[in-house]
Amino acid sequence: MLRSKIGGIGYYVPEKVVTNDDLTKVMDTSDEWIQERTGILERRYGKKHEETTTTMAARAAAVAIERAGIRKEDVDFIIFATLSPDFYFPGCGVLLQRELGITASEAGALDIRNQCSGFLYGISVADQFIRTGMYKNVLVVGSEMHSMGLDFSTSGRNVTVIFGDGAGAVLLQPTEEENKGILTTCLHSDGTYAEKLALINPGAHGGYHAKQLEEPVDYGYPDSKYGDMFVTQRMLDEGMLFPYMDGQFVFKMAVQKFPEVILEALGKAGLKKEDITMLIPHQANLRISQFVQRRLGLRDDQIWNNIQRFGNTTAASVPIALCEAYEAGAIKSGDLVCLAAFGSGFTWGAALLRW
Ligand code: ACO
What we know:
Elements: E1 3-12, E2 16-19, H1 20-24, H2 31-38, E3 42-45, H3 53-68, E4 77-81, H4 92-100, E5 108-112, H5 118-131, E6 138-144, H6 157-160, E7 166-175, E8 181-189, E9 197-198, H7 233-237, E10 244-245, H8 247-268, E11 278-281, H9 286-296, H10 307-310, H11 317-327, E12 336-343, E13 347-354
Parallel strand pairs: 4-5, 4-6, 11-12
Antiparallel strand pairs: 1-7, 2-3, 6-7, 8-13, 9-10, 12-13
Helix pairs in contact: 3-4, 8-9
Bound molecules: acetyl coenzyme *A (ACO).
Acetyl coenzyme *A is lined by residues 29, 33-34, 37-38, 116, 157-158, 161-162, 197, 245, 247-248, 250-251, 254, 284-285, 287-288, 312, 342-343.
């Protein structure tokens, strides 16, 4: 049976380290608060004007491609997951293709807007393409330059302290080896609570405020010559251009959905939680990961956490953590690796891989 395996994997994080103490210089927060609530000690920020979501993705992708032992030109499809794209449009998929210098092949590029679960959705889509024989070298990337879109004033502190920049990539290839590669993927979503973790301005909604959902806000441009998707002075003045998160609500949903979807994937593959060698959870918050670890009865060496050093890198967090675990020798041939993510949308998913 044709399956997809990870032929190559890579990640990239920017050099600049931003500690919790660094953040206390610009907003009212503390190292103690951040560590206690999130487990984060530091995160990386990309270099403005030099690094972007796409350039970081290219660095990670180049490593994945090299490890897969193929030429860049052999990539026949690109899947790019991010919530912090370089441009509103076009998406980062084509920008990555250009950055890698592989436009001549005219390989397809697809952008995924599923935030924290974007990479999980990406490998699931790639897996279907490979299983049907449509593509042989699919590049799946998650990359985020969050530092460009955060509110560094005290009013943004509950969100800003959590996020960091970085990129991760895998090159998926077909394999006919018995019991190897992606065994199954499970994807879910529920749009009921879309605004609980969202960045809604500017948008085509015509006037909205994440914190006042019942009372749509008119930004004052119906009579102007501009459409409603443009940024207005009022949006700037009222700080409406930043992400909004109902942290406690997200926490409650995450600790419910993570174990649920992992157990679902195990059931689908005819496996049990005791079969998991390594869990790579989306690095949402160390407290969420520790809750999931306890629910599944996993030892400390069966879960990979790096949020302490990188913060939450959204679509990039799973491939970065997977790559780190692989490079550290914590994943070996034959191991059962479980990837899982939950985030904005809400969207969530899990994948089981036999390494
Ligand atoms: N520093 C200091 N104080 C802060 C900060 C900060 N960075 N942020 C918020 N506070 C204050 C608040 O103002 C509030 O003060 P008050 O009591 O005087 O009003 C107090 O801390 C408690 O605020 P809450 O928002 O209730 O804090 P909570 O205990 O819920 O912790 C957190 C916030 C860490 C975000 C938590 O809700 C959480 O872990 N949520 C899960 C969501 C998550 O992890 N999201 C990650 C991204 S989404 C994803 O990847 C799935």
